[in-house]
Write a structure and sequence with these properties.
Blueprint: H1 9-20, H2 25-31, E1 33-34, E2 41-46, E3 49-54, H3 57-74, H4 81-84, E4 88-89, H5 92-113, H6 121-141, H7 145-152, H8 158-161, E5 168-169, H9 171-182, H10 185-188, E6 196-197, E7 203-206
Antiparallel strand pairs: 1-2, 2-3, 3-7, 4-5, 6-7
Length: about 210
């Protein structure tokens, strides 16, 4: 059974040689490197080409999720914005601060719009209603930062928006969704996004 195998350097080499055939013994033996620090993987050559191996698809999936988390933390702008926007959020504290600042701006704007109207209690009540309506619209827009700040208002590019200290990413959720959607090989097999599997579950792909 696959799950019963305890992989180490020698058993992995034997598995690869059995998979590819004895004609590759020398090349695999001479090029084989096992990661003794992190375990679970390494690399080898076949027909002069570099390959990476990982001891199981489950481990490969975990490594891919970790890679996406790192990429999201370092370069979130490299991801498709229509996908990424589902995982962006502004904290409740930052929303309150932003809404407070926006409320002052909206009230001033509405008063400017109604300068020609005579002062009255009715006018003040109308101003407050307009302010509240626009503030509600603004508060709602904060639920989708890319759509509002980039596409609608044009205040930021995606790259600049991601640099704002009030923008957060649900990194764990986003990474899991990315790997679930595109497959782990898309993120680890940078050569062609493909992988193959040996008889006992070791996955390998071009480096």
């Amino acid at each position: 059974m696959k799950n019963a195998i305890i992989w180490d350097e020698e058993t992995v080499k034997k598995e690869l040689i059995r998979h590819f055939g004895n004609e590759y013994i020398e090349e695999i033996e001479n090029s084989f490197e096992y990661n003794n620090i992190l375990g679970n993987g390494g690399n080898f050559k076949k027909d002069g080409e570099e390959y990476i191996f990982i001891e199981s698809e489950e481990i490969a999936e975990g490594k891919a999720i970790d890679q996406v988390k790192e990429d999201l933390g370092d370069s979130p702008e490299m991801f498709t914005q229509t996908w990424l926007q589902d995982f962006l959020y502004i904290s409740d504290t930052d929303k309150r601060i932003m809404c407070n600042d926006e409320e002052d701006y909206i009230r001033e704007q509405v008063r400017d719009e109604k300068l020609d109207e005579e002062e009255s209690p009715e006018k003040e009540e109308e101003i407050e209603k307009v302010v509240e309506t626009r503030l509600d619209e603004y508060r709602t827009s904060l639920e989708n930062p890319i759509e509002y700040f980039v596409n609608e208002q044009g205040i930021y590019s995606v790259e600049d928006l991601m640099k704002q200290n009030w923008i957060n990413i649900k990194i764990d959720e986003a990474a899991e969704d990315a790997v679930r959607t595109d497959g782990w090989a898309h993120f680890l097999s940078r050569y062609d996004g493909e992988h193959k599997t040996t008889e006992n579950g070791i996955v390998y792909f071009r480096d």
